[in-house]
Prior knowledge:
Strand content: 15-25%
Structural class: alpha/beta
CATH topology of the domain at 41-109: Rossmann fold
Distance between the termini: 50 Å
Helix content: 40-55%
Amino acid sequence: MGRADKLEGNLAMTNTIQVFVPVGVVSTASVRDSAARHVDRSDFVIGMLDNHKHGSTQILDRLQQRLEEHFGVVNFVRLKKPDAGKGASIQVIEDLARKCGVVINGVAD
């Protein structure tokens, strides 16, 4: 059996595709309980890093608006990279890490 025969045999064995659906079951009681209690988010900070690509400012503006509508009082820190072709500086990354509970990187074109 040559190399081509082995490859062909391996391909013949992979005629099926396995699809994994990562869907879990959420207890509606726990969702209702957490929604019913008041959570103070006034100290929570969401960082938004604009990657300077066309459209990213508009995407982050809309996302911030939706987050404010959904969560109410949340603080935002918005920073913009000086150039789309370069990574964020260490200073920007450290600043976001120090101030924010979560950071969203805006990517668009």
